[in-house]
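During the no-cost extension, the postdoctoral fellow (Dr. R.K.) reprocessed legacy sequence entries with the updated structure-token encoder. One reprocessed record is reproduced below for audit purposes.
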Amino acid sequence: MAINLNNLTLDPPVFLAPMAGVTDKPSRDIAKLFSPGLVVSEMIVSSDNGKSSFEKVVRANLLGSKHGTAKCPTAVQIAGHEIQWMSYAAKVIEFEGGELIDVNMGCPAKKIVGKLAGSALMKEPTHALNMIESIVNATNLPVTLKMRLGWDTENMNAPKIAKSAENIGVQMITIHARTRNQFFKGKAIWESVKAVKDTVSIPVIVNGDIISNESGKSAIKESFADGIMVGRGAIGRPWCISELAESLYNYRPKKKSNSLLMSELVNLHFAKTLDFYGNENGLRIFRKHLAKYLKNLVISPSCRYSLVTDDSVKALERKIKFLFDNRKVNMTYDQCR
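Re-encoded structure tokens follow.
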């Protein structure tokens, strides 16, 4: 069940996907309460604002990642096109104490594709593989790859790229089971991931449309993948990670789960966000997470609007306690308290 990369053990093989604007340090801390085998940072674009800015972002993403009782590595995901920049990025991540480097070849956003990065690299496999090889050679850390099935349905070249990536030292591959031109529309084509699995001997992880135990089982059954990566399904529902681990892999953490009021969980996420960003930015940033948590409740639109526009930290904490106090979730670790 566990996946081993160098000296890292990823157990269970239920991972939190990288999501821009979502999987920041506070959100990953919250996800770790529910025993993922791996969490992945937001994508860091290697050459956006210069070396010093990049180094600062990497340090912020790795802050405290090796502390606490949770045995959950953090992967730092990088995106870019320039070989020199990406190999430099790998060196920075290792120097700053990173545990794993994930290369983004799956982001479909126009601003990333326009820089010939993300899923645009699937149209330039020779350049992409040269870049990935430079990353592997620049670091002693495990290097993994996240990509899509292909640019479009006529060019589903993921199996060929995956095999070449394995040959140059990539240790695990995650496939978002859509093409770039699908963006996030339509249904994930889990069965097409099997072609990648049949081509390589390294672990293959399936991603896309995994939002419940049922969809997780179907994704594994159709893809034959070695594990799953959960994205949007975990936003506002981080406990689905432990539910999937138990349902799919009969995984039960060695440490007994603790019951936690949902109000405590939401306010803990709020507090971590404020601590990380400061009160003003933290309050603004947390609103999008709160909106997702609120989808677990039946409340009026006016109440929902009042919560996501409240500009008082203390008032919002009280409202969260009142609304979520009668619901409980189970967590594994308490290192984030």
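The two ends are 29 Å apart (CA to CA). The longest strand covers residues 74-79. The remaining legacy entries will be reprocessed before the final report is submitted.
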